[in-house]
């Protein structure tokens, strides 16, 4: 009989290990995140939704100068 051992931060539901939902702003790039710089600033290269900032997105980013 195989016993599934889940990682410390995973949930065990019906003998399946379920990873936790990603947390934007924890400094760890997790599934669904393009970046995660560990802060909640919208004015750098990674916004507070863990998306890379680009020219033309309506937000002034200091590293990008626009």
Net shape: elongated
Strand content: 5-15%
CA(first)-CA(last) distance: 59 Å
State mean pLDDT (0 to 100 scale): 83
Helix content: under 10%
Topology pattern, helix = H, strand = E: EE
Q: What's the main sheet like?
A: 2 strands, antiparallel
Kindly report the spatial arrangement of strands forming the biggest sheet: 1-2
Please work out how many helical segments DSSP would assign.
0
Radius of gyration: 17 Å
Q: What quaternary form is this? A: single chain
User: What are the segments in which pLDDT stays under 50 over at least 5 consecutive residues?
Assistant: none
Secondary structural class = little secondary structure
- Please give the number of β-strands: 2
Q: Which labels suit this protein?
A:
66 residues; little secondary structure; two-stranded antiparallel sheet; 0% helix; 9% strand
Structure description:
- With about 70 residues, this protein is mostly loops.
- The chain has a domain at about 25-65.
- It has no helices and 2 strands.
- The chain has a two-stranded antiparallel ribbon.
- The radius of gyration is 17 Å and the shape is elongated.
- The N and C termini lie far apart (about 60 Å).
Give a concise summary.
By secondary structure, the chain is largely without helices or strands.
